[in-house]
Amino acid sequence: MTLRSVDDRTYQIIDCASPGAVDELAGLTVGDTVSVTLTEAACRGNGWRVIAVDTACAVVDASLVA
């Protein structure tokens, strides 16, 4: 999954910290907005791990892109 921030940075999501985060992200469709907490994943390349997801956020940090 790729997330794009409001300042046009892209984040390749390769891991989630919990099954709940996986479920929240799985329910999104292209164009949905979401606020996420990310940490760099231990991998080769630019991978990120989702720590927390908030789909009912007032301030949008990232939007899902295809």
TrEMBL record:
Q: Residues in domain DUF7999?
A: 1-55
A Pfam family found in this protein is: DUF7999
Q: Show the InterPro entries listed in the entry.
A: DUF7999
Name of the protein in its database record? DUF7999 domain-containing protein
Q: Which organism is it from?
A: Halonotius pteroides
